[in-house]
């Protein structure tokens, strides 16, 4: 009987140590590592400037002409009625009127307000 008690004590001890080790290592996996530096210190501060919706600073993009209506994705031609917005983007008149009437009061390409 004494041998059975010793064996049961040994099994209980091994299981308890195993559970304790599992609990210790499984919880430490989710802790955040501590570093001597912070995320904000690793990047220099650059001055920010507000983005303009009506003017593009890249001259390559300003000079580029679109050959298709970005709403219906068909070719722009001089035979169809076109409308050019103040931001410079061109669309089929029917397409842009539908866009402005039902989907919003801004350019579909650059989101510049259309009044």
UniProtKB/TrEMBL annotation:
Residues passing through the membrane, by range: 6-25
Protein keywords: Membrane, Transmembrane, Transmembrane helix
Protein name as annotated: Uncharacterized protein
Biological classification of the source: Eukaryota, Metazoa, Ecdysozoa, Arthropoda, Hexapoda
Segments of skewed composition (Low complexity): 36-48
Family annotation (Pfam families): zf-RING_2
Residues covered by region (Disordered): 31-66
SMART domains: RING (SM00184)
Domain of life of the source: Eukaryota
Entry keyword Transport: no
